[in-house]
Known about the structure:
- By secondary structure, the chain is of the alpha/beta class.
- It has one domain: P-loop containing nucleotide triphosphate hydrolases (Rossmann fold).
- The chain has helices spanning 2-7, 32-39, 58-61, 65-70, 94-101, 114-129, 151-155, 167-171, 174-184, 195-200, 202-212, 257-278; strands at residues 16-17, 22-26, 45-47, 74-75, 80-84, 106-111, 190-194, 224-227, 232-236, 241-242.
- The strands form three sheets. It has a five-stranded parallel sheet with strand order 3-5-2-6-7.
- Strand 8 and strand 9 form a beta hairpin.
- Helix 9 (174-184) runs parallel beside helix 12 (257-278).
- Residues 28-34, 86, 120, 123, 198-199, 232-233, 244, 248-250 line the site of adenosine-3'-5'-diphosphate.
- Its EC number is 2.8.2.23.
- The active site is at residue 29.
- Residues 20-270 form the Sulfotransferase domain.
- This is Heparan sulfate glucosamine 3-O-sulfotransferase 5.
Amino acid sequence: MALRKRLRAPRQPRPARRLPQALIIGVRKCGTRALLEMLYLHPMVQKASGEVHFFDRDENYALGLEWYRSKMPLSFKGQITIEKSPSYFVTPEVPERVRAMNSSVRLLLIVREPVTRAISDYTQLRSRATPSAPAQPLAPGHPLPDAAKPFEHLAISPDGSINMAYRPIAISLYHAYLHRWLEVFPREQILVVNGDLLIEDPVPQLRRIEKFLGLEHKIGRKNFYFNETKGFYCLRNDTTDKCLRETKGRKHPRVDPAVVTKLRKFFIQHNQRFYDLVGEDLGWPE
Ligand code: A3P
């Protein structure tokens, strides 16, 4: 018996579903999917495949942490599980709920130049609305649905002021949401990722993130190749070779340059408030 015990094979590490140790909290249309897929190239990273929306949807949150855990991938001890749901960033209840799960969770916030982000958001809303556009022409006097209107008409009110109530503009006011996170988490627990730089040259950004997550540096140039047709980097490692779907990297509609200039001017003071909060100037055009 004693001999049999000694000869028994060493115990294999068993994978388990673990709550995330890192979250991509937003911002939508800033490259949240690209960031998650790029981090997943790392052998010590596991990702939740869809957006779980645990912390921002009351009906999911009510199901409890065991429900959330059941949505997580299998991981080995030492691996990091990451989940992303971009609406976490803008939902007021989320920071406190995340803290209640794990006060030392690592938070990744990816941002882009706010006017580009707003146009990207508009492009997505418009493309989603197109398939369900009314089959019949609208009756005379019937207002056009928002998604069918030009961006310029939605972002600028008839009196010429910026329409801050328009969601794609409101979400680009990053400081308005970030301050709530900073009331709950220390600044060092949030890494701000520049989404425009991630598009141009992902490796240096990923190196910063690996460091932030306490991971060995593994993601390098070998993991990316530029796809001329798509106009973006695609990803590869021993098991994957893929570009992001066509919903990522859409062509944006042309926006009147005077409107872009007006919006950029409007965002100067808001961007400054964001820089002050994060302690870093992201150099967005004025
Ligand atoms: P656009 O479609 O406006 O270009 P999210 O995943 O948060 O919705 O962000 C979508 C954005 O990710 C895209 O916005 C695109 O610019 C950006 N992105 C960053 N890296 C990318 C990549 N390698 N392939 C495709 N899109 C990428």
